[in-house]
Amino acid sequence: MRTLNVGMIGGGFMGKAHSLAYAGMPMFFWPAPAVPFRKTVVDINDELAREAAARYGFESWASDWRKVVEDPSIDIVDIVTPNHTHAEIAIAAAKAGKHIISEKPLARTTEEAKRMLDAASEAGVKHMVAFNYRRTPAVSLAKKYIEEGAIGRILNFRGTYLQDWSADPNAPLSWRFRREVAGSGALGDIGTHVIDLARYLVGEITEVMGIANTWIPERPVSSGPVDKLGTVKSSGDVKKAAVDVDDEINTLLRFENGAVGSLEATRNAWGRNNFLTFEIHGDKGSLYFNYERRDELQVCFSDDPDDRRGFRTIYTGPAHPNGAALWPIPALGIGYGETKIIEAHDFISAIVQDTEVSPNFYDGYRIHVICDAILESASSGQWVKTVEQLPAAR
Q1: Pairing status of strand 240-242 against strand 218-220
Q2: What pairs with residue 62 in β-bridges?
Q3: What is the pLDDT of residues 14-36, one digit of tens each?
Q4: Which of 177, 251, 176, 180 is nearest to 216 (CA)?
Q5: Per-residue confidence at 349, pLDDT binned at 50, 70, 90?
Q6: pTM here?
Q7: Which of 153, 188, 283, 348 measures 20 to 30 Å from 125, CA to CA?
């Protein structure tokens, strides 16, 4: 069986998730399209890199990402670093002929995302942006119902991503609150997941009308390099610095197929942990999904008898997309790790079979165009179109 050597750049939370996916993918999808071999992991210094290699099962480690890109034995470069490093690493990896998977958002800016797309396209390598929530079986099931016409013509999409990890003003100023590193705030961090789901399930977004807010204008300066996502709070008289990205985004949406919708993303919603939801209404039915109950898809179809019409729950299992590779009965429990395992399978399958993978850098670029339009609309108070910069898909 073919082996693909992985060089992973970044040893934090997402490094753990990706390493789990590489280890688990052949166990779930057997025979595997190829076996991902954890070759080299990179972190910001020798000590952390050595620890990451031991923890995540990599054969070797390095503290300079260029060693991975320049290594002729590496087949896949996996980018799980803060946003400001994505473009430089991905462009170098593409020029070196490596297949690339990058965490989301693809970059800090549309211009960076376009350069990444151009480099990967010109090199002819496979490229993927890791919006793994669309790999949740219930989301794939919603896509199946839509493509089958089970809810008819889509009229409306409503999506939310609500978290509370930064609602406390004493949560430190991590890189996620700094434009020079993150690019944007809640919009790029979590709103892009909703945009990806909207495009995946409904179609291209052509116009937006947005509102942006920064509720907490300054935060305590972080004391270390590790992003704790608000789990460590500062107290007492500490140095603070300005937040220069959005805390919350609300926007109306218009789609190419005539549907309309809305999107809300905030990291300041007390009581919400990972409240990623969508509700889609068609002229023949409706679908509802909540990631905090990720084994479930709520469905209602117009041809249900009058005395039985209403949302009912389908628990995903072996009969549903990717279900046969996961667990033997419905509702046994799908987690974040399983979505990453499916993501790894789909990416590696595309490499081996020389097929297109989705979402790819083109999708990542398009999402940046839409994000720019949302922020422009928030500033101008006007509807902003997203299609002027629309190139052909690659």
Answers
A1: antiparallel
A2: 42
A3: 999 999 999 999 999 999 999 99
A4: 177
A5: very high
A6: 0.94
A7: 188
Order of all β-strands in the sheet with 205-213: 312-315, 296-301, 285-290, 275-282, 154-162, 260-266, 248-255, 205-213, 384-385
Token match 């002729």: residue?
Answer: 72
Taking each continuous run of H as one helix and of E as one strand, the counts in the chain are 11, 17
Q: Which residues pair with 129 in a beta bridge?
A: 102
* Nearest Cα to Cα of residue 56 among 34, 30, 85, 24: 24
The two tokens of residue 355 are: 């097929």
Q: How far is CA 312 from CA 121, 162, 285, 294, 295, in A?
A: 44, 24, 12, 15, 13
Crossing angle of helices 46-56/13-28, nearest 10°?
A: 30
Q: How far apart are CA 316 and CA 327, in angstroms?
A: 10
**Max CA distance (Å), the chain:** 66
What is the pLDDT averaged over residues 350-356? Answer: 97
Q: Looking at this protein, which amino acid is placed at residue 331?
A: A
- Whole-angstrom distance, CA of residue 53 vs CA of residue 48: 9
Residue 58 has pLDDT above 80, yes or no: yes
Alpha-carbon distance of 313 to 294, in angstroms, equals 11
- Local structure of 173: helix, strand or coil: strand
Which domains are delineated in the chain? 3-133 (3.40.50.720), 134-359+367-377 (3.30.360.10)
pLDDT surpasses 60 at 389: no
Exposure on the CB side of residue 219, measured as CA atoms within 13 A: 26
Query: Cα separations (Å) of 324 from 137, 328, 333, 338, 352?
Result: 11, 7, 14, 13, 21
Task: Of 343, 320, 341, give the one whose Cα is nearest residue 332.
Answer: 320
Distance CA 188, CA 265 (A): 10
Closest CA to 16 of 80, 63, 64: 80
